[in-house]
Amino acid sequence: QKEVEQNSGPLSVPEGAIASLNCTYSDRGSQSFFWYRQYSGKSPELIMFIYSNGDKEDGRFTAQLNKASQYVSLLIRDSQPSDSATYLCAVTRGSNYKLTFGKGTLLTVNP
Amino acid sequence: EPEVTQTPSHQVTQMGQEVILRCVPISNHLYFYWYRQILGQKVEFLVSFYNNEISEKSEIFDDQFSVERPDGSNFTLKIRSTKLEDSAMYFCARGGQGAYGYTFGSGTRLTVV
User: Region B58-75: what's the mean pLDDT?
Assistant: First the structure.
């Protein structure tokens, strides 16, 4: 069973702080890694993807990948109350691009 | 707003009834997917559809489920005889460059009573 594990939280940070979200995966053959944001009752929204070891930055978001440790993380700088949502980690393997999701981490940013 | 629209947004059906969930409109993409999310659970893959054929399906996608692209644009998921445990949010997704992630539809909340 290929698993993606996330701390379910809730993770609570004050406005303006850095939020750090973590994810581990069991399938060493995983090729691409994604972070989705999901507001309650809404569909997942792609924030970032990464497929090479190291860091990838996009605005206030930085994704970090360590394939040796099978670990991927998302940092959100200058957190805003609008960032409050569940963050889903997902991985793919193979040409079909089927996503395997973690259960998500609930982030709350307090004003 | 998501680029992929699903209808209906919410459907309530009696156990044993057939439901058809629709994904409209669809632009010219090759890959389509259906996922579901039971309340409080993770998003789960159901089926992928490539070039008008099922390319992969999960254990969840049993004989009660079917997918079609009836008119070349709409993409449907049919559940023939709904069970209580089919109650969930159902998301379709379109992809073309799946390595870069893909876009989910707005979702249909299915409630089986």
Answer: 88
